[in-house]
Amino acid sequence: MTATEDRPALLQPLPPTMQDRVLDLARRRAEVLAGPGERATDAQRARRKLTVRERLDLLFDEGSFVELESMRRHRATGFGMEDRRPPTDGVVTGWGTIDGRAVFAYAHDFRIFGGSLGEAHAQKIHKVMDLAEAAGAPLISLNDGAGARIQEGVTALAGYGGIFRRNVHASGTIPQISVMLGPCAGGAAYSPALTDFVFMVRDISQMFITGPDVVQAVTGEQISHDALGGADVHGGTGVATFVYDDEVTCLADVRYLVSMLPAHSDEMPPVAGCADDVERSCDRLLELVPADPAKLYDVCDVIAEVVDDGEFLELHDSWAANVVCALARIDGHVVGIVANQPKVLAGVLDIPASEKAARFVQTCDAFNIPLVTLVDVPGFLPGRDQEHGGIIRHGAKLLYAYCAATVPRVQVILRKAYGGAYIVMDSRSIGCDLSFAWPTNEIAVMGAEGAANVIFRREILAADDPAAARAARTAEYRSELVHPYYAAERGLVDDVIDPRETRTVLARSLAVLRTKQAPVSCRKHGNPPI
Known about the structure:
Pfam families: Carboxyl_trans. InterPro entries: AccD/PCCB, AcCoA_carboxyl_beta, ClpP/crotonase-like_dom_sf, COA_CT_C, COA_CT_N. One of its GO terms (molecular function) is propionyl-CoA carboxylase activity. This protein has two domains: 31-259, 2-enoyl-CoA Hydratase, Chain A, domain 1 (Alpha-Beta Complex), CATH 3.90.226; 284-441 and 484-513, 2-enoyl-CoA Hydratase, Chain A, domain 1. Helix content is 39%, strand content 17%. It is built from 22 helices and 17 strands. β3 (101-108), α5 and β4 form a beta-alpha-beta unit.
């Protein structure tokens, strides 16, 4: 008889009860929520950054977040990895609600392996991305990671490939939002670049393909992380859509953006209650916009006057400021607004402005957001730098985006609209549904003075008083071809309206176009000039 068999039955270890199992589960869950310990959390706070769960609490409705694979651990060996297997593997994934609507998310935990991506980490992200697309719900990534996990080698790189492929597959199907709350270096930076919107926070977030050490080794240049790829840098390059001073404000605006987007491409954007009378007269417009086409004004004041409660969300406000792209509501319905900005470069279209507006038009079209285009454009920016930089190709991006857009499109010409820039800014000839003009509009191949200089060049040079001859011919050209009703007489605008009626006209136009049906193309896809 063995010692165990000789022991009285009462001394035999009892199998765990259900209560024991539940207590063990609670302990394990507490371990997950506690994270890697106070030391790592203190280091995170020393960088003036929130922890991953604090961020998720700010992003989602209280108590709504449901975590997936919280107990997942990596299975790598070597380099001491087998001795360090914390739960979550450095990324928290799941779903919750924002204003009651389902949203999926993944968030790096910099406290665990610096938020670096390994095999298990990547598989968690892949799973939540697949779920978001299958469920038809927005996907938000809270990025705070050091890139590929070197100890796991090529499997980490393959993990990024899977993320990129899913970003592209979901593009235009569900909204994808990247929130940069820490470093994002190397190939990792391509995932945010593939998403629809990128948020960055000053001082704590950076993005670059090669870091300062590599830059110094290759070029000899010494540069800081922020100077190389900080929030303000990418606010100016167009990589960052929005830039903020702190995480709390940033995440509040992520919630606000989600409130203006549909869950997926087969759904209309959410409609909000509107206490702002759509029939109200916009009297301030008569003062805001000078009749003289050479005088400057801020088109953002015009936008604020016509949208609900004067509220709008401007995208890329630090990049290509000569064109304004904004999301707003008119009569409670979300609209995308593209407007030339006369106070910056007189509102001309150049390479950055064309790219910015084209991207915005495509985004609105993908997510069923009607487009309102406010036109006050003197043309494309001339010059060798623009021509050598490919203004023809870049300007064609905006032209292509408008021509391909199937959402309701309404154009309002405020003042000047000259040359090819008039055509590109959603003119009737490229398919806008309704076009209106203020009585200050000037639609022409070019300004009256420039046209007179071309047409009557010899006559003006031969005149005894060239200045007087130029003025007379300019006045003649303006009265014949550039007067406010010339385009209306030829059906190129639907009506010339009182500026004070702009809000009402837009609301009524968008309402009647809400059931617009676009023909379905049988082609695989177009070939835009990207």
